[in-house]
Every structure is written in structure tokens, then in C-alpha cells.
């Protein structure tokens, strides 16, 4: 029986992307408290993803991509960029969250403007990796 964790992980990535976009739209409308809730939600969902992802790969090992030809090249291009940038998300997100919590909003804004596109890219591409690896 196939594990439900890859689908859960893709769902958590999609939820993270939705919360990030929602939080971004809210702060542009100066709805600070709603923005805060969305961004904390995105962080929580991403943390849950990380725990689930690590558990799955600890128990299942690595999963080999079965596609051949051009799609294999596309998959590995997406996977490599996703993996490299995913390593940057936790420190960027933690720094932005810390600065907001500390009330250092000018610095928070600077860090958040760099963290958001990377975090969003990783979240969306996490769903793409799932579809290519498990559904294609």
C-alpha cells in the first residue's frame, strides 16, 4: 500500500503557498493582524511539512523518478532548484519572523521581501515535484 504522506506533503506545500499569498495581499492592504495570522499559519504548515517529509523519507527512503526523455530533464531542473532554495527558506523565514516579533518592522520588511518569493517558489514547486514524481 502506498503511503499517504507524499499527498499530505503536497497539500501542506499548497496550503503554505496559499497562506503566503494571502498574507502578502493582506499586508499590502495594511491588515497587519490578519497578515500576522496568515504568515504564522504558513510557517506552521511549512514546519508540519518538514516533519512529515523527513519522517516519510526516513521510513521510505528515496523515490526514483521513472520518467524518461525531456520530462526527466525538466523534473531534475525543478528538483534541483527546489532543493537548493528550500535550504534557504528556514533561516530566511525565521529571521523575518524574529524581526516582526521584535517589532523591528523596517528590517522585517527587508528580509520578508527576499524570503517571500523564495518560500513561495519552493512551496509551489514542491507540489510540482509531487505531481511529476507520484502522479505522472
Architecture overview:
By secondary structure, this protein is mostly helical. The protein has a single domain (5-135), classed as Cytochrome c oxidase, subunit III, four-helix bundle (Four Helix Bundle (Hemerythrin (Met), subunit A), Up-down Bundle). Helix content is 85%, strand content 0%. It is built from 4 helices and no strands.
Keywords, please?
136 residues; mainly alpha; Four Helix Bundle (Hemerythrin (Met), subunit A)
Topology:
Elements: H1 5-28, H2 32-60, H3 70-101, H4 105-135
Report the C-alpha radius of gyration, rounded: 16 Å
The assigned structural class equals mainly alpha
Number of helices: 4
Query: How far do the termini sit from each other?
Result: 18 Å
Shape: elongated
Tell me what the CATH architecture is. Answer: Up-down Bundle
Percentage of residues in DSSP E strands:
under 5%
Number of strands: 0
Number of domains: 1
Name the helix and strand elements from N-terminus to C-terminus, one letter apiece: HHHH
Q: Largest sheet, if any?
A: none
CATH superfamily: Cytochrome c oxidase, subunit III, four-helix bundle
Uncertain segments:
none
- How helix-rich are the residues, as a percent range? over 70%
The CATH topology label is Four Helix Bundle (Hemerythrin (Met), subunit A)
Identify the CATH class. Answer: Mainly Alpha
Average pLDDT reading: 96
Amino acid at each position: 500500500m502506498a503511503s499517504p504522506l507524499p499527498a499530505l506533503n503536497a497539500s501542506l506545500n499548497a496550503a503554505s503557498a496559499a497562506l503566503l499569498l494571502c498574507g502578502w495581499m493582506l499586508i499590502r492592504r495594511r491588515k497587519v493582524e490578519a497578515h500576522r495570522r496568515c504568515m504564522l499559519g504558513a510557517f506552521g504548515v511549512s514546519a508540519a511539512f518538514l516533519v512529515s517529509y523527513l519522517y516519510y523519507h526516513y521510513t521510505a527512503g528515496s523515490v526514483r523518478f521513472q520518467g524518461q526523455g525531456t520530462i526527466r530533464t525538466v523534473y531534475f531542473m525543478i528538483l534541483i532548484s527546489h532543493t537548493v532554495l528550500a535550504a534557504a527558506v528556514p533561516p530566511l523565514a525565521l529571521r523575518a519572523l524574529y524581526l516582526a516579533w521584535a517589532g523591528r518592522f523596517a528590517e522585517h520588511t527587508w528580509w520578508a521581501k527576499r524570503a517571500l518569493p523564495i518560500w513561495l517558489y519552493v512551496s509551489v514547486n514542491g507540489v510540482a515535484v509531487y505531481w511529476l514524481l507520484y502522479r505522472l
